[in-house]
Every structure is written in C-alpha cells, then in structure tokens.
Amino acid sequence: MSYILGVDVGGTFTDLLLINETNGETHRAKVPSTPSDPSIGVLEGISKICDRAGISQADLSHVMHGTTVATNAVLEGKGAKVGLIVTQGYRQILQIARSFVPGGLAGWIVWPKPTPLALLENTVEAKERISAKGEVIEELDEPAMIESLKYLAGQDVKALTISLINSFTNDSHERRIAELAASVMGEIPISLSSKILPEIKEYERTLTTVANSYVRPTAAKYLKNLEDELTKIAPSARLHILRSDGGLMGVETASSAPVNMLMSGPAGGVSGALWLARQSGYKNLLTLDMGGTSTDVALVQDGEPRIGRETTVGDLTIRASSVDVRTVGAGGGSIAHVPELTKALRVGPQSAGAVPGPAAYGKGGLEPTVTDANAVLGYLPVGLLDGEMELDYEASQTAVAGVAQALDLDIYKAASGIVDIVNENMFGALRLVSVQQGYDPREFALVAFGGAGPLHANALGRLMGSWPVIIPPSPGVLCAYGDATTRLRSESSRTYIRRFSSTSDREIEKLLGELHQEASTELLGEGVSADLQEVTYSVDVRYHGQGFEVTIGLSSNEVSGAILEIIGDRFAKEHERLFTFALDTECELVHLRAVVQGEHPKVSAEMIAQADSDASSAVISTREIYVDGAMASASIYDRRKLRANNVINGPAIVTEMDSTTLILPGHAGKLDTFGNLIINPISAN
Question: Which residues form the Hydantoinase/oxoprolinase N-terminal domain (predicted)?
C-alpha cells in the first residue's frame, strides 16, 4: 500500500494527516511546532503518525507540505540582505512606492512607512533602456555594470534582484546582467523580474521580485534540508509544496520562486474545506480557519475559491496569485484586556502564542485568552489531543477573574463577553469576503475548522445567517487535509494592453496558446503528462482609461470561439456586481494568463458507519455550561463514536482529538455519510 501525507506547519502546532490511497482511511497527528527549525517538528510528526498508523515511513509515496517559512521570514524581518539592480533613474523606486496610505481620516499623520526589503545603499543603476514595445533604445553598459556588481559584492548581499524598466517585453538585458553577476558574485541566488512577474507596473514588479529574493535563501535552505531528510526515511516519497493559490509545486520551483508560497498555510485550509464539503454536495462556502493566533476566512463560489492577484503579509503587498483570504488577529490565544483609560473590554490582536500559551495550557501563561474563556464557560474537555495535554481549569479561572474584576462582572459574564467580542471580530472578517464583495452570506454554507473554529462556528452561523454550519472530520488538521488532496499547478502570464478594437479573437487565442505551453512545461518536469493536464485561462480587463482591472475567467473550450464577446459580456456583469453599474465604453485587455493543473490525487473520502438518529451511545458525560446568558446542562459526545444520521440537539459539546465543537441551544447537528457534522437551527432541520 502507498500513503499520501499532508503536513501543515502552524504557529502553535504542526498538523499531519495520513491517507491510505487505496481505501481513503485516515490517520492524524499534531505535534508542537518548532519555530527555530520547522523541519524538526515535521520529522517528529512523520515519525509519530507512521507509528500510530502502523506503517513504515518508507511506505509514503507523496508528502504535500504547507509551510510558513517564507511568511515568517517577512513577518519577523529575518530575510536575506538583498541587492537590487534597476534601470538608471529608478534607484528610489521602492522608497517612492505608491501614493496610498492605509487608515482612516488623517491616517497619514501616524502611518510608519515600511522599510523597503532592499535598502537604498544596496540598490544600483544599470545604464540601459528598453521601450514599452521591447525595442532596445540604449544598449547595456557592461563595464559600468561590472563595477556596480563588484560594489554589491562588497556590500555582502546574500541575494540579488534584477528589475529593469519594460523588461516584461524584452528580458535580454536582465538575462545578460544575471550572467555578469554569476561571474562576479559567484553562486548568489538571482531573481529576475521578467521571470517572477512578467507584467507591467514597475513598482509592483520590482517589489514582488525583491520579496522573492528576500525569502529565497531561507526557503531554499529549509526545503533542501527537509527533502534530504525525507530521502533518508522515505526514499520513494515525492515532496511538493503548497502554493498561495491552492495548488502544488515542486521543490525546485518553490526554492527559486518562494514568493508564490507566502500564503501557503491559509490556502491549504481552503483546499481541504472545499474537498470535504464537495463530497457532501456543497459548492458555495464561507471558510473559517481559527487557530491559536489568528483566523483566516475565504469565500468559495461554485466549487472554486476566489483567487486574488495580490498577496498581503504584514505591511507587504505583492503581486502574486493567492486564495483571497482575509486574516484577523482572533485566535484561541488572543489576549483579553481592559485598558485603564477606557475600561472597555478588548480581545487581541496580541496573542499568547505557543509559548507560554493560554493559562489553561499550564506552561506559565498568566494572561486571559479566548481559550481560557471557553474553559471557564465549560466548553473545553479536561484534556486536549486525546488527553496528551491536560488543561488547567483553575489557572483559566484565575486569569479570567482579572477581567471580571476590571469590568465589575461575574466570571461567567466576563468570559462570555470575551467570546462575544472575538466572534464579532471574525464576523467582520467574514463580511469582508462576502457582503463587501457583493455576495449574500445567507446563500453560503459556513465551513469551520482549525483547533478553535468549531467552538465558535455555530455562533458565527447565527450572526451571518449562513446555514448549514459544517464541521468536517479532523477539523484541527484540515489544512493538512487540503495539502494532501490538492493538485500540481503552474501559471504563466503576460502583459498585453490592447483595446478590443485593436486586436482579434485569433490573436488572443494564439497568445493564450503560447502561455499554455509555458505553464505546461513546468508540470511536464514534475512527471505530469500532457494528457493529464487541465488548462484554464483568465484575462484582466478594464474600461479604456480606467485605473484598475477586473479578472475574468475562460474555460479551455471558450478560447476557440468569440473570445472578445465572451470577455466583454462577463466583464460588464462582474463590474455591475462589484460596483452596481456598467458603462457603454470600449473595453481594454491588460494581462493574459494560463493556469495548468495536474490530475486530482486518487484519494477517496472515508465513509463512516450508518445508524439511525439516536446518538446516545456516543454520550460520555454531561456538564453544566454557561451559554446564551444562563447555565444549562449539556451532553458531551465522543465524535469517534458517532455514526452517519446521528442527530445531536444543543446545547451539546462534541469532542475529538484535535478540536471541540459547541452546538448552541435551538440548534442540532447531524452526521452525514462522510462524517461531516451539519449544524442547522432546529426549525430548519
């Protein structure tokens, strides 16, 4: 037998999910993350889960890995020292940036401008010029360039970015400078803007390529070490890395273009939620991934997650395709506090993290967190991770008592207030990906996962009007499930600015075909034959004279017909959905893009045993909990003992190894064939 392993490294835990490719049987494990070297936690987890499944590590055929290595390098400011080469006259491109300042009224007064990832003293100019049409106006001054490269070598830069004006139309000068750099600076990693982002807008292109260089040494070293260790324990296993857009890429591609995995972790959760919900027939989803530090939310329509053209990590916003995920500082470890000045309860964004963690974890944490509030309210079991982590209820009560005293409330009302506030924070994030984008959340199911998501899901479904609320099996390791069930993906793009009247259907068909071939080549290198590849296309369109674009998708069978007419119709509808109006103005193409994907892994969803509606055999105890402003008796269920068609009436708590689910009064959860817990208001059941 062969096994697929999904691995997701989070801030607190490293999650693993092992899937038997033959029968879909799953095994799961969680181990503490090791921030100093994430590969240590990954390898410890692999050993643990293989022992639990009773298999040899050599039986692994694929390891799909979602990693935050590149993300953390940006957030912690621990990337490489980057040298930057630009066209003469553009040396301060990163310092000038874009004239946009976040924040509300007068936000510019207090906004600290982020420090560029490539400093001005490490930026040099190339004497050269290429026109917007790709014509060489001024040849590259190679002797001067060699002197500049010697200067950068003296600055001890660890990675090099080459980003010349208009190189997206002609990359000859960028490639020549790379050759010179290799001879002057040795084996320094070099990123070319014409390879990383061959599109117009020199600032975004430069910033994105610099970000790639910034994280490249760290990411490449980590991936090489992990691949080397995997080769020792599982010689036949192939390692693939999750991209920000939810696809997979090979180690070589990930090492050279790690900017494409900055949102690797959140993308895995969306992919896993989609795969499991699809088994139960749900295609319109809002996803809620609540971990220890933050919560990620996203929207899936007609079985496809919304893919954005920008990725934001901390203060950095780059041009790279990623699942449109919004993140808020609301997690199980979010700290509750009452400022002395306002006496108003606040929750987050500060987090207790993995060390020391919530007070309930018994690792020395003293500050009250969301986890502690849930413990006080009675929602958490005595021990997490199948009893491997015993909770300290007394420590939680002591921590939350400080908030209660500051607010002059009893401890239950204070704990309930903490939970209500964190729910409102997540409610706001869910509205950003639904209402603000023109979608009615009442038309979407809410899929909740992560270690803390199922505890808050029922309340958020009630706030959003999103039913049913779906709690998949193994919700705490669903990101790892997504890693294990997604497929290889490659993307190729090109800037092509033309009014509709200045191009033709056949010209666009020809260009999209070329992009298809470029994207296909990468997958061929990963062993995916052309007949197993699936291609889709997208174009960025705007009204002529407009300052931004809207992305329109095309299927493979639409590029041989009236392409411009299809694009025009879809653009008008999408523009009206987003902005409530469409114009009788000529449209203009800006970018063309081809996305090639491999076949889905041959993994079948595991089905659970059938039974009737009576779930009493899964009850392990009862407990008094504080819910909806009063004490109530709640039954505690062991999810492993539940069967398909079992119905659980709230108030109730469902426990499992990696998460805990709260079902509120007036609601009921029903198990489906695939083990998903489907929660609805009782009136809707």
Answer: 5-183
Q: What pLDDT, in 10s, does the model give residues 53-89?
A: 999 999 998 999 988 888 888 877 889 999 999 999 9
Task: Give Cβ neighbours of residue 351 (< 8 Å, ≥ 6 apart).
Answer: 292, 293, 294, 329, 331, 333, 334, 335, 369
- Cα angle: 304, vertex 310, 311; to 5 degrees: 95
The set of long-range contacts for 441-445, using a CB threshold of 8 Å and a minimum separation of 24, is 441/286, 441/465, 441/466, 442/466, 442/467, 443/284, 444/284, 444/285, 444/286, 444/299, 445/277, 445/282, 445/284, 445/285, 445/286, 445/469, 445/470
Retrieve residue 347's tokens: 């929750």
Residue 376's region, left for phi above 0, alpha for psi from -120 to 50, else beta, is alpha
Instruction: Name which of 385, 353, 251 is nearest 660 in CA terms.
Output: 385
Full-model pTM: 0.82
SS (H, E, C) 480-523: HHHHHHCCEEEEEEEEEEEEHHHCCHHHHHHHHHHHHHHHHHHH
**Nearest-angstrom CA–CA distance, 550 and 564:** 15
pLDDT bin (cut points 50, 70, 90) of residue 109 is: low
DSSP code of residue 610? B
Q: Which residues of 437-473 are buried (b: 16+ CB within 10 A; e: fewer)?
A: eebebeebbbbbbbbbbbbbbbbbbbbbebbbbbbbb
Distances (CA, A) of 467 to 305, 478, 628: 18, 20, 20
Domain boundaries along the sequence of the chain: 78-217, 283-467, 497-597, 607-614+636-685
- Give the architecture-level CATH label for domain 78-217: 3-Layer(aba) Sandwich (3.40)
3-state secondary structure of 562: coil
Name the token pair of 428: 């706001």
User: Model confidence over 384-442: pLDDT tens digits?
Assistant: 655 556 788 899 999 999 999 999 999 999 999 999 999 999 999 999 999 988 899 99
